[in-house]
Write a structure and sequence with these properties.
By secondary structure, this protein is an alpha+beta fold. Helix content is 31%, strand content 22%. It starts with 9 loop residues before the first helix and ends in a 12-residue tail after the last helix. The chain has helices spanning 10-18, 29-36, 41-44, 57-72, 130-138, 154-158, 167-170, 173-176, 198-204, 239-249, 292-295, 309-319, 337-354, 371-374, 408-428, 453-466, 471-474; strands at 23-24, 50-52, 83-86, 103-106, 113-115, 121-125, 142-143, 177-183, 189-193, 213-220, 222-223, 227-235, 259-268, 272-281, 301-302, 305-307, 325-333, 361-369, 393-402, 432-433. Strands 12, 13, 14, 15, 16, 17, 18, 19 and 20 form a 9-stranded antiparallel beta sheet that branches. It contains 17 helices and 20 strands. The protein is globular, with a radius of gyration of 22 Å. Strand 5 (113-115) and strand 6 (121-125) form a beta hairpin.
Length: 486
């Protein structure tokens, strides 16, 4: 048995007894390997008292019962039972899926993928990664509205929204979840779907980790064969043409629902200024007309080809290596030419603040958010994107990767300054939207508040119903919490 001194590590000790071989402590090889597998260096550097690896929903039930029992029997707020929940560990937000001193629940062993007999549904463990889900479904010519990057865990995306290549046809990833299996604060296991606990289903579609631990999700699966996509690389001198092409593409009335785009303006110490467009068309059609304006812009490299989801994500993984320091923030705007230009100009001007940071990659990414995606299920999720009058929107991610913790302060302050500049500029132009996508957001942005007063009030009531002890509010400090007051 592992020796643990004192009562300050009660939960880790108790779980090491009740889940033998599934609790890892500092110095253990599996503990070290688990920490090294986080996407960001900040998350990897956090040292929990122990890492717990449940293999079943019943294991999670036991974990939650242990934690809740400890909390209810100790009125002095036992910090040893504060915990974090890890799915894929891809979030760059510090503490989102790891915790100092407390215990980290590593869900990656819950990675089953079960396709229904008629292939219309797939049930996935919350610790699976989307790469494996796509690969399994590819073999039967099916897919799901999951995210666009490799190494991302199912659970985190499913409760945060989730932007997909298939979003214009099916909505957010959260919208495509027909059933959440959830372990509540006291260890009870419930299902949330349109027939049972439908209020919890609504809340989990964007409400983050405030209600319980998602153990499995069931999603709609649809027929999907090969598609067209990849990256195309441009000189920074094409910026004005890029803005014009983006504006043309993201037209609410003519939007092609099979098309997906990410436009990224990037600076790196090694490569200077570049513009990289990720173009995808979810049919096996090369150079579809909707992308004509982008394809007409001179470029110096392209990986565009007929391929499949598994191959596309593999390519993405090569461009997003693990182990660097990471940070991001987000805004949502109406994509007028003036607002887009003001945003790109502000980003260009911000490069001078970070260009001397060793290893810096400083990026502005623009994700079209057409009403075909956000309005399709707006009343059945918590995101608060109703009442937009079918306007096209764009989600902006300001992101950075760098090498040394010595530069954390300058990078993070530069992100804040750029967000402030873009906020001021787009507000003056009447183009700023209140919505903030939590999977891109910085901790200081308070993104759940952007869902609007009515939705925040509703989320509070649902949280009180399913977590009356406020375990996931007070004992899970990471992630985005529901505001306690307006």
């Amino acid at each position: 048995m592992v020796a643990i001194e004192g009562v300050e590590r009660f939960c880790c000790l108790a779980l090491s007894i009740s889940l033998p071989g599934q609790v890892w402590f500092p110095g253990n090889e599996t503990y070290v390997t688990s920490l090294a597998s986080y996407f960001s260096a900040q998350q990897s550097s956090i040292q929990p008292q122990c890492i717990v690896s449940p293999k079943t929903a019943e294991d999670i039930s036991l974990i939650m019962h242990t934690i809740s029992s400890r909390i209810s029997s100790n009125n002095t707020c036992p910090s040893d039972c504060k915990f974090a929940i890890r799915s894929g560990g891809h979030a760059s937000l510090i503490g989102a899926s790891n915790i100092p001193d407390g215990l980290t629940i590593d869900l990656r062993a819950l990675n089953s993928i079960q396709i229904s007999q008629d292939q219309s549904l797939v049930t996935v463990g919350a610790g699976a990664v989307w790469d494996d889900v796509y690969s399994r479904l590819h073999h039967v010519n099916r897919s799901v509205a999951g995210p666009r990057s490799a190494g991302i865990g199912v659970g985190g995306v499913a409760i945060g929204g989730g932007i997909s290549f298939f979003g214009p046809r099916y909505g957010w990833t959260s919208d495509a979840v027909t059933d959440f299996e959830v372990a509540l604060y006291n260890g009870s296991i419930v299902n949330a779907n349109s027939d049972t606990n439908s209020d919890l289903l609504w809340a989990l579609r964007g409400g983050s980790n405030n209600f319980g631990i998602v153990t499995h999700v069931t999603m709609q699966a649809f027929e999907q064969r090969d598609l067209w996509g990849g990256y195309i690389f441009h000189e920074s001198s094409t910026a004005d043409a890029q803005i014009a092409a983006f504006f043309y593409f993201n037209n609410a009335t003519t939007y092609d629902e099979f098309a997906s785009l990410i436009s990224t303006f990037s600076y790196s110490a090694a490569g200077g200024f570049n513009i990289v467009n990720s173009l995808e068309y979810t049919k096996a059609v090369s150079n579809p007309p909707i992308f004509r304006k982008f394809m007409d812009i001179p470029y110096f490299g392209s990986t565009l080809r007929i391929t499949n989801m598994t191959d596309l994500l593999s390519e993405t993984a090569k461009l997003q290596p693990n182990g660097l320091r990471e940070a991001s923030a987000t805004l949502t705007i109406e994509p007028t030419v003036e607002a887009l230009k003001a945003t790109v100009d502000a980003w260009n001007n911000s490069v001078s603040f970070v260009q001397d940071v060793p290893g810096i990659v400083w990026s502005l990414s623009l994700d079209p958010l057409p009403p075909a995606m956000y309005a399709r299920h707006a009343k059945t999720n918590a995101l608060g994107l109703t009442g937009r009058n079918a306007k096209a929107l764009v989600i902006m991610m300001i992101s950075a990767t760098w090498s040394s913790s010595d530069d954390d302060g300058v990078v993070e302050s530069s992100i804040k300054a750029l967000v402030k500049k873009v906020t001021e500029a787009t507000r003056r132009l009447g183009a700023l939207d209140r919505y903030q996508y939590i999977n891109y957001a910085a901790q200081w942005q308070g993104s759940i508040n952007s869902y609007g007063r009515n939705n925040v009030n509703k989320l509070r009531k649902i949280r009180s119903k399913y977590d009356p002890a406020a375990v996931f509010t007070d004992w899970v400090p990471g992630g985005f919490k529901i505001p306690e007051s307006e």
